[in-house]
Amino acid sequence: MAVTVPAVPQKYSSTDIITAQAVLDDWTVQNRFDPATWNAEAAILVYDRSLHNRLLKLDDLRALNFGAPGSYHSIAATNGRVVLAGDFGIGAPVAAVVAETLIASGVTQILSIGTAGGIQTDLVPGQIISIHGAIRDDGTSHHYLPADVVVGPDPKLTARLEASLGDALGGRGSVWTTDAPFRETIEELRFHRDAGVLAVEMEAAALMAVCELRDAAFASAVCISDILSEQGWKALFSEAPVREALLIMYNAAVTTLMEAR
Question: Is the pLDDT of residue 259 over 90?
Answer without folding.
Answer: no
